[in-house]
Model the fold of this input.
Amino acid sequence: MPPRHLLILGGTGEARELARRVHLMIGKRVRITTSLAGRRAVPPTLAGDVRCGGFGGIQGMMQYLKENAVDLVVDATHPFSPTISDHATVACGDPHAGGTPRLQLVRAPWRFPPSAKWIEVDDFASCANYLPQFAKRVFLTTGVRGLDAFSGLDDLWFLVRLIDAPTTPPPLAQYQIITGRPPYMLEDERAILAEHRIDALVAKNAGGKATEAKIVAAAETGVKIVLIRRPPPEPGPTAETVDEAFAWVEARV
Done:
């Protein structure tokens, strides 16, 4: 029997770990392909095959699944990547009607220490409207694509952390850019907050251990946390951990 073809929609640490575990534990029964959006300057090293770039919409993904004889799909994309998840839902279809079985690996939200001062808002615009009420020096960790929403806050200073240095300056009046790749250590996050006298942390409510240290550090020091609410998952089966996702794959090969 030929190996089953598993397509992992990746870009997260969970996707990387799932590919590693499948390759190590049941690699003889599974051919792995991880699909990446291709936004990072240096793609991560992954077990199995890797493809970079979009599919060309729903029809393009449907064609890819068919032409590459994909048997299983695990959507392990970032919780704030709703477009690709929506496309995967439609492209895979109903597995009971001949569609491709699909699982969403959706990491659990962060659990906040009792001392945390935090609020959740709907979007970047709501966050930008809220910040001037109390903040002066903001640690902004939402990624490069959300920076435009903060462009009018000229009285605030921003420490912007990105994975890769931007190719163009951000649209902010006062800022400093630092780069870093998760996982982040608690001692380092504490030092960043202290060194830059941060009074507000802005983050997407993405969850995950790799970036949780900033939440813990902010709660410890009384820094107010403003979270962007994550979009709801697509309908269909979900898993919160790599263990659960691996068990789902193993049961189908």
In short: The helical segments are 13-26, 57-67, 82-92, 124-130, 186-195, 213-221, 242-251. Residues 125 and 149 are 6 Å apart (CA to CA). The mean pLDDT is 93.
